[in-house]
């Protein structure tokens, strides 16, 4: 049993304890996401959420395994799969055994493949990939593997819940689907067509197109096509600067219907949409911010804002990643044997401060949890985003969304 070591007391205290007592160690978690370029604000805000969660939920409580602390180590991947693999190898060479990433499913595919190959070749330095936001359904279907866990709902689960809301709105007769031209954008489009056909076959999809990711400077041509189509609603999986550019262009060109999104809040977007987004922007996601679902969530959010006044907790699942990893390490009794940690994560049930139970489904390592559809508004907002008056107010909830969803995952376990 390791004795708890108080950090910051200096080397002399550690030497006094002696080698036989054991020392607290940092458990390094590599954060591989964009910290420069067009999606830097999204990546930086995510990094701050990880740093805060590690400190507040683990380190301030004495760490794990008698005193080991979580350390978030940032790596800028410039939203490039190639650069991500370089940074992944650097992280592994530094002794990292846990990797978190979320921005771009294309990057996630590269990382999960690389981690699987590394673990086959290097059984003494295996790595776990904790995916917090890359939601291409294939990652927990045909591309699943034992070393990958997804803490966000996948694109199909989100679309299933989102189209329940759309199908219930009898005023929606025409829908325009638009997204980024890569695996995630294609998955969103396919799921939208499939679910709407099943739930509201009378709805006409009047547009379904993809655009280059991170390269469109002016979305006006796309917005004009959407308005000309006479669509009643828009569905998009866009995120980061692509979401802001598309959303503003659509609204400014006269579209007044609901814009159903996956990622349209925080990182400057909420403030930028401002009054124009009210009544239009709808977002589906895990975790309820407004109204706050618990006293713990309220205290956590207030403490985060005190440390990062310009930041937002726009991805509550990040705290779930950290808390569930800590719980798995404690249950496994080790942080270095990632197979044991993975086995502890499989089937874990966890009560999140954000108003939901999370179940890590063993079949495909897909987190099952409540999903909320929130509206961009300045009314009844306890925790606004971007130091504005606006935030997301939960309008509807789908309980344990995707619990019975099918998976094609055929997982090979070590």
From TrEMBL:
Domain (Leucine-binding protein) ranges: 27-373
GO process annotations (BP): amino acid transport
Signal sequence segment: 1-24
Keywords: Amino-acid transport, Signal, Transport
Pfam families associated with the record: Peripla_BP_6
InterPro entries in UniProt: BCAA_transport, Leu-bd, Peripla_BP_I
Top-level taxon of origin: Bacteria
Protein family: Belongs to the leucine-binding protein family.
PANTHER family, per database record: LEUCINE-SPECIFIC-BINDING PROTEIN, PERIPLASMIC BINDING PROTEIN OF ABC TRANSPORTER FOR NATURAL AMINO ACIDS
Protein name (Swiss-Prot/TrEMBL): Branched-chain amino acid ABC transporter substrate-binding protein
């Amino acid at each position: 049993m390791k004795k708890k070591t108080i950090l910051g007391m200096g080397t002399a205290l550690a030497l006094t304890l002696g080698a036989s007592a054991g020392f607290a160690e940092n458990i390094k978690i590599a954060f591989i996401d964009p910290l420069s370029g067009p999606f830097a604000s999204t990546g930086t805000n995510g990094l701050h959420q990880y740093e805060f969660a590690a400190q507040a939920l683990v380190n301030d409580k004495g760490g794990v395994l008698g005193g080991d602390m979580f350390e978030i180590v940032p790596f800028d991947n410039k939203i490039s799969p190639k650069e991500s693999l370089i940074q992944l190898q650097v992280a592994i060479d530094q002794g990292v055994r846990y990797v978190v990433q979320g921005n771009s499913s294309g990057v996630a595919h590269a990382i999960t493949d690389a981690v699987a190959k590394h673990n086959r070749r290097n059984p003494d330095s295996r790595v776990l990939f904790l995916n917090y936001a890359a939601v291409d359904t294939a990652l927990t279907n045909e591309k699943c593997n034992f070393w990958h866990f997804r803490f966000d709902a996948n694109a199909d689960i989100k679309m299933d819940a989102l189209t329940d809301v759309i199908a219930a709105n009898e005023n929606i007769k025409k829908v325009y689907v638009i997204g980024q031209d890569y695996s995630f954008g294609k998955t969103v489009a396919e799921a939208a067509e499939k679910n709407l056909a099943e739930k509201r076959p009378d709805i006409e999809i009047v547009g379904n197109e993809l655009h280059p990711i991170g390269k469109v400077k002016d979305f006006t041509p796309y917005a004009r096509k959407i308005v000309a189509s006479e669509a009643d609603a828009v569905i998009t999986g866009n995120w980061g600067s692509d979401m802001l550019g598309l959303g503003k262009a659509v609204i400014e060109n006269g579209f007044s219907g609901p814009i159903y999104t996956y990622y349209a809040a925080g990182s400057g977007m909420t403030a930028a949409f401002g009054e124009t987004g009210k009544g239009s922007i709808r977002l589906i996601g895990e975790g309820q911010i407004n109204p706050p679902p618990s006293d713990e969530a309220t205290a956590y959010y207030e403490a985060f804002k005190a440390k990062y006044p310009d930041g937002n907790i726009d991805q509550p699942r990040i705290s779930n990643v950290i808390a569930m990893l800590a719980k798995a390490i404690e249950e496994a009794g080790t942080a270095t044997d990632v197979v044991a940690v993975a086995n502890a994560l499989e089937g874990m049930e966890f009560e999140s401060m954000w108003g939901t139970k999370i179940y890590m489904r063993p079949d495909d390592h897909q987190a099952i949890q409540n999903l909320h559809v929130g509206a961009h508004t300045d009314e009844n907002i306890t925790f606004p985003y971007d130091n504005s008056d606006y935030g997301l107010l939960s309008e509807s909830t789908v309980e344990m969304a995707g619990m019975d969803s099918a998976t094609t995952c055929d997982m090979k376990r070590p």
